[in-house]
Amino acid sequence: MILEMKVPSPGESITEVEIAQWLVEDGDYVEKDQAIAEVDSDKATLELPAEESGTITFKAEEGDAVEVGQVVCLIDTSADKPEGTKPAKKVEKVEVAQAETQSASSNKTYASGTPSPAANKILAEKKIDVAQVNGTGRDGRITKEDAVNAVPSMGQAINVDGRESSRSKMSMLRRKVAERLVEAKNTTAMLTTFNEVDMLPIFALRKEYKETFKVKHGVSLGFMSFFTLAIVRALKMYPAVNSMIDGKEMISYDFCDISIAVSGPKGLMVPVIRNAEKLSFKGVENEVKRLAIRARDGQITVDEMTGGTFTISNGGVFGSMLSTPIINPPQSAILGMHNIVERPVAINGKVEIRPIMYVALSYDHRIIDGRESVGFLVAVKEALENPTELLMDNNIKKSLEL
Hints:
This protein is α+β, with helices and mostly antiparallel strands. The protein folds into three domains: 2-104, CATH 2.40.50.100; 117-167, Irregular (Dihydrolipoamide Transferase), CATH 4.10.320; 189-399, Chloramphenicol acetyltransferase-like domain (Chloramphenicol Acetyltransferase), CATH 3.30.559.10. Helices cover 26% and strands 26% of the residues. The strands form five sheets. Strands 11, 14, 17, 18, 19, 20 and 21 form a seven-stranded mixed beta sheet that branches. A five-stranded antiparallel beta sheet has the order 7-2-4-5-9, with no helix packed on it. Helix 5 (223-237) crosses helix 6 and helix 5 crosses helix 7.
C-alpha cells in the first residue's frame, strides 16, 4: 500500500510552509512516528513524523515552498524492514515553535540563478545586477519576491587569496521575522523613551530572601518577577500602553499577557505569560521556569508564543548597555532591559556607587501619547526602586509566600 504524506497545518492562518530539511534519505526505510523532515512556517518549525512504517519516496525537495495539505512524500507500507536497522527517533511533540531562529537548511548554499521573467523585469527597472541577488527558488532561481526585496548594492566586497564568502538561504521563519521588523518600523509611529533604575533595593531583597525562596518554592527569585509585576502595575495605570490598533479602532485589554524572551536551542523565543496580573512572585518565576524548560527542550508551541499584549526584551543578558527595541506587532509597546553596571549617582546630595540599569520603552505614538509613555516608564522605575511598598504592600514574606 502506498501512503501519501501531506503537510499538516502548523497553526491557524498558515497556508504555506517550506521544506527546511529532510532528516532521512530518499528510499530509506522509516518507522511510524519517526521524524522524517523539518518544515518551516512563518511562525514555527514543524517536525514531521512518519504516519506509517515503510520505504519513503520524496515528492518535494529541501527549500521547496509547499501548501498545507500538499503531498510531500510517499511511504510504501508493504516494504519489509531491513535487518540491522537501528531504532529511529520518535516525534513526541509535533510543534517546535521558535522566534528568531535559522533552520538547519541555512547550511545549504544557493548560488544566484537565472531570474524568472517577472524577476528579471523588476531587477532591470531597479538597475540591479542579477549577480548581486541571492535566489531563494529551486536551484537558486531568483523569484519575483527576491527581486522585489532586492536593494541596490553599494559595492561588492573584493575577494583576495585567503578570503572567502558564502551565500545561504534564510529560513521562511527568518524571512518572516525580517518582514515583521520592517513592517513595524514602516507602519508604526515608533518612538523610544529612556530612564534608569537603581537596582539596589531589589539586590537587597534578593540577597536576604533568595535562598529561602528557592528552598520553599523550588525556583530562584530572579529579576523577571520584579519587572513583570512592575509592568503589570504600570499597565493598569496607563491602559493605552496595553492596547492595540485594529483598523480605525483601538482594542484595550483588561488582562496582561506578557511576552518574554527566553533562550531556546535554536535561538531566542518569545513565549507569553498569560494573565500575569493574577500571578504572585512565585507564580511568575514558576511560569518563566516552565516556559524556559519547554523552550530548551524544543516543546514550545505556536499558541504559547502568540497573543501577548506587551513584550519584555532583555538585552542585558548579552551585555547590552542601551538599545531601542522594536515593537512586536500588533502590540503597541515593548520594554527593553539592559545590563546592570555600578555607576556613580547623586543620592541626597552625595555621590554613591549604585547598580544601575538603563531601561527603554519603545511605543507606537499613534496610540500612546508622550505623557502616557513617559508616565508608564516612570511608574515602572518607581515600582522597581521601591518594591517593598509598591509591589509587596509592605509585607515581604506574604508577597513571597514564605
